[in-house]
Design goal:
Helix content: 55-70%
Structural class: alpha+beta
Oligomer: single chain
Strand order of the largest sheet: 2-1-5-4-3
Number of helices: 18
Shape: elongated
Distance between the termini: 75 Å
Strand content: 5-15%
Order of helices and strands: HHHHHHHHEEHHHEEEHHEHHEEHEEHHEE
Largest sheet: 5 strands, antiparallel
């Protein structure tokens, strides 16, 4: 039964304890900070002045009553002892003097910095004055009206720091019950001479309790409101800082930033957008652009913009030509998305506009440049290569002139005819076969450089074009190995092919995959000494084919590995090569076009493993 009783009592006890901690627990360190203390002291100091004025007026009213009662006695005061009736004026004057002293202290530095001490001093000077007088006179004075007015006025006008209110009340009650009990004094009231009057005690207890609870709750409310204001002010300051920061970004952005309505008006615009359109002020853009469509060189571009927005909700790299204010034409690229409300209704378009005129001009210049490379450099190299090969085949080492002819090589365009010998008499110039072979090798390297440069440009501008078909990976690898057999023999390299015929088929471009394997093998031969050991392997992992080309060569540093697939990057260990470093870059472009990934695992003096993945589906 004892255990059951304790369990039954535990729940209400725990509830009361939790409520008590929640209501009367000491504020946490985070709650009480310097700012709130400073605010509370300032509030207490300001309200203390108002309370002193009210106390002064209240005491003056009672003093005037006592003075009037000397000449015209009040019936209600006849029950009081003679000494109390005659000496009340002296008590009131003493309390008035203490109030004036508090007024003087209120204006001092001490009063400003320690209003709590001034609060206690002024309260005790009023509440204890009558008690001291009664003690000296020889009786106990239960000043119910005076204490009620004092505690109530303090709770109403200065409802902060409930501990101060409790101290003033406890001090007076301890004096009244403690000193009077110790001295054995009684009250001058004939009906209730004892100081322990149950009704009086209950009244004072609940009056003080209600005042203290009211002060505590108000103080707690003020604290919460204060912290809420602080957080709001902090959030507002952060918002202002963020707004200023993003306003600076908005105003100083290089790209044009806009919001446009569905009917073709600019709602907001930044200075960069105004400059793109040839205006000096943003207001001119928002005011004059009532129909954005009229600024497109091709009026259908705005309709296409709206169509893409309705279909996808955003556009990217939307390139168009527009008219500027002065009538000139520039290229722009738009990135935008549609902003809708919670119901899905279109509100406006928001995005960026970039002036790409210079980029377009550069692209055009590059197009002309690569056209020149194709026709003005590639064709002469093809012609020279054809002549050198004809001379080699016809025994140029003996000094005989080669005759013209046409060779069909692996290049995309036919070789031009060999130049005919001059009609004027010239002595034959003997050329050794080794020199002629080196000239042919040099021409081959020049042709490979030109072809790689053009392929890189095409992949950069248009991306890698794939002719997909069902491919067996083993056949592609064997074809690449067969084509590179002379190069492998020349470098005394040994290649092991571990690719299995049982691998799943892949949907890929066999020619482009052949280039990847060929480039990786040639790259390994370029960067390593002769007698290299190469291994090609491919395994099935999940929904991908994982391919590797490994060697036991000198390896690659981490710094080089991070940049190995970058455009025009060349390793420091290439032997006797004038390549531009485009092979690995093209490999990356091809593998990415197939939807795979490519990388390298290596370390110095530990060989290298180039790997790439190919999706099966």
């Amino acid at each position: 039964m004892g255990k059951v009783a304790r369990m039954l009592m535990a729940t209400p006890f725990t509830t009361v304890q939790s409520w008590w901690r929640k209501i009367f627990s000491a504020p946490t360190t985070d709650e009480i900070n310097t700012l709130y203390k400073a605010w509370r002291n300032r509030f207490l100091w300001q309200r203390l002045r108002l309370w002193l004025w009210l106390a002064l007026i209240c005491l003056l009213s009672f003093t005037l009553r006592d003075i009037y009662g000397l000449f015209f006695p009040f019936q209600e005061l006849q029950q009081l002892p003679e000494v109390v009736r005659t000496q009340r004026i002296v008590i009131n004057v003493a309390m008035l003097m203490s109030i004036l002293v508090c007024f003087a202290l209120h204006k001092t530095k001490l009063g400003r910095h320690r209003p709590d001490l001034l609060f206690l001093g002024s309260s005790w000077s009023i509440s204890l004055a009558s008690q001291l007088f009664a003690t000296l006179t020889g009786f106990a004075l239960p000043d119910t009206i005076g204490w009620s007015l004092l505690f109530l006025s303090q709770a109403v006008l200065m409802p902060v720091c409930w501990i101060l209110h409790l101290l003033t009340q406890v001090s007076v009650l301890v004096y009244y019950f403690g000193v009077n009990t110790a001295l054995g004094l009684e009250t001058p009231i004939p009906e209730h001479p004892g100081i322990y009057n149950v009704t009086f005690i209950l009244y004072i207890f609940w009056f003080c309790t209600i005042c203290d609870i009211g002060v505590y709750l108000y103080d707690r409310l003020q604290r919460s409101e204060f912290y809420a204001r602080q957080e709001l002010e902090s959030a507002y300051q952060k918002l202002k800082v963020a707004e200023a920061k993003y306003r600076t970004i908005f105003e100083n952005a290089v790209e044009g930033i806009f919001q446009s309505s569905p009917d073709g008006r600019y709602i907001t615009a930044n200075p960069a957008l105004a400059r793109i359109y040839g205006y000096s002020l943003v207001e001119e853009v928002t005011a004059n652009f009532t129909d954005i469509e009229q600024f497109y060189v091709d009026p259908n571009r705005r309709a296409e913009f709206v169509r893409l927005m309705e279909k996808y909700g955003r556009v990217s790299e939307f390139e168009s030509q527009i008219y500027r204010r002065d009538g000139s034409i520039v290229w722009i690229s738009e990135k935008a998305y549609a902003v809708r409300d919670e119901q899905g209704k279109l509100l406006y378009y928001e995005g960026l506009i970039e002036d790409i005129t210079q980029r377009k001009q550069t692209e055009e210049e590059l197009r002309v440049f690569f056209h020149a490379v194709s026709h003005d450099l590639r064709n002469p190299v093809l012609g020279t290569l054809m002549v050198l090969k004809n001379l080699l085949n016809q025994g140029a080492g003996t000094g005989e002139q080669g005759t013209g002819g046409r060779e069909q090589g692996g290049n995309s365009s036919p070789l031009p005819p060999a130049p005919r010998p001059s009609t004027s008499f010239q002595s034959p110039i003997p050329v050794s076969r080794s020199i002629l072979e080196r000239m042919i090798q040099s021409s081959d390297r020049q042709l490979n450089l030109i072809n790689s440069l053009m392929e890189t440009h095409i992949s950069e501008m248009q991306g890698v074009v794939l002719q997909r078909q069902t491919v067996q990976l083993l056949a592609v690898v064997e074809a690449a190995i067969a084509d590179l057999e002379p190069l492998l023999e020349q470098n005394q390299a040994k290649l092991t092919n571990l690719v299995s015929a049982d691998l799943p088929l892949v949907n890929a471009d066999p020619t482009q995959l052949w280039r990847v394997f060929s480039n990786l093998i040639v790259n390994a031969l370029k960067h390593n000494p002769p007698e290299l050991l190469l291994t090609i392997n491919a395994t099935h992992k999940d929904d991908k084919i994982y391919c590797t080309v490994s060697d036991n060569g000198v390896g690659i540093s981490q710094q080089q590995s991070d940049r190995l697939f970058d455009l025009y990057f060349r390793g420091a260990s290439i032997r006797n090569s004038v390549s531009l470093g485009l092979g690995l870059y093209l490999c990356k472009q091809i593998i990415h076009a197939h939807g795979g990934e490519i990388g390298v695992n290596s370390a110095l003096d530990a060989g290298a493993t180039f790997w790439f993945t190919l999706p099966i589906s």
